[in-house]
Amino acid sequence: MHKLKRNEFLARYRQENLKEMRYRGIQEILVDHIRGSVNRWQDFDEHFQSKDADQEKLRSILRAFESGVSFPPIQVYQVKEDYYVIDGNHRVSVAKEIQQMYIDAEVFELLPSGDSLDHLLWRKKAAFNLKTGLNLNFTDMESYRLASNYLLLYQQELQEKSGLKISLKEAARDWWTEVYEPGISLLRQLHIEECFPGHSLDDLFLYILHHQYTKSILQGRKIRFQEALSAFVSTQPDQMAPFMNKLFRGFVFKKKCTRLCGQCAHKCPEGLICLENGQLKIDAECSGCGRCTDGCPERNLVAYEKIKGSPRLTVEKSSIG
């Protein structure tokens, strides 16, 4: 066993300029993410083993663990994905020794001041996690806002379908299982993140989900996740930013057009509005110039971002088989 030569928690506290604490309550945390002790750092090594610790106490805790005795939660500080023990060092030592996956903990999250883009992103992620219970890793702050909007839409859909009031965290858990996990599994199979360095897998998933939604709205039909994915597979890494900027623009019909006067089509400088099967359709290439809105006598066109409804944002099993 090698004793630690410095207090890793204190070093990180200073390095990250941690200024704020948020109480996160009692929750299960991953034992493997417990990195050190706040005050007993000289007594335990990096694996939480110790020759100086009370050996009888450790044996007693081990016997209790094996007998299924319940312990009160340990107390920890959370710094990003890592935890540092305030109280419960011996319990953590035993949990690591028996390779226990989770342990109950009372969590106090430490956050930095907003003195850099990295710290602002860190704070945005923490707020998203507190609100939704989801741990998603985006590389820009706007993505957390967009993901929150999709979760709200998903929550509304579940409530309308069930007739019950469903909390955002409950909806988020369902979304994680029904939407996120199948989609991420497909992206991992394709190793798509290797094609887009600088973007996390969660970034790419959200971009594709967003493309699925906007294309469904613009084309007036249900788009499968795999179809939306195909656009990204053919996109060059250096074209990602222009491609994403294009996705955030576009106009749709608020309701089915029954007048069919064609004024919007005449106004469109790109010729992207056409009559198809008795319905006016806006092509997915719409750049959002807005000229069509001037031509519509019923003011039936609106930027897609203002649409409150949503198609079911799920990854169908048939689309990933």
Question: Could you please describe the fold and organization of this structure?
Answer:
With 321 residues, this protein is an alpha/beta fold. It has 2 domains: 8-113, Conserved hypothetical protein from pyrococcus furiosus pfu- 392566-001, ParB domain; 141-319, no CATH class. It has 11 helices and 9 strands. It has helices spanning 8-15, 55-66, 89-97, 117-132, 141-162, 168-190, 201-219, 225-233, 240-247, 263-267, 291-295, and strands spanning 18-30, 34-37, 74-79, 82-87, 102-112, 251-253, 273-276, 279-282, 301-303. The strands form 3 sheets. A 5-stranded mixed β-sheet has the order 1-5-3-4-2. Strands 6-9 form a two-stranded antiparallel sheet. The chain has a two-stranded antiparallel sheet with strand order 7-8. Strand 3 and strand 4 form a beta hairpin. The chain is elongated. It starts with 7 loop residues before the first helix and ends in an 18-residue tail after the last strand. The model is unreliable at 305-321 (pLDDT under 50).
Features:
alpha/beta, Conserved hypothetical protein from pyrococcus furiosus pfu- 392566-001, ParB domain, 2 domains, two-stranded antiparallel ribbon, 11 helices, elongated
Helical content (DSSP H or I, runs of 4+)? 40-55%
Mean pLDDT: 80
Total helical elements: 11
* Tertiary shape: elongated
Strand order, sheet with most strands? 1-5-3-4-2
Largest sheet: 5 strands, mixed
Give the count of structural domains.
2
Q: Which structural class is indicated by helix and strand composition?
A: alpha/beta
Report Rg: 26 Å
Q: Strand share of the residues? A: 15-25%
The counted number of beta strands is 9
**Terminal CA distance:** 49 Å
Show unreliable segments: 305-321
Spell out the helices and strands N to C.
Answer: HEEHEEHEHHHHHHEHEEHE
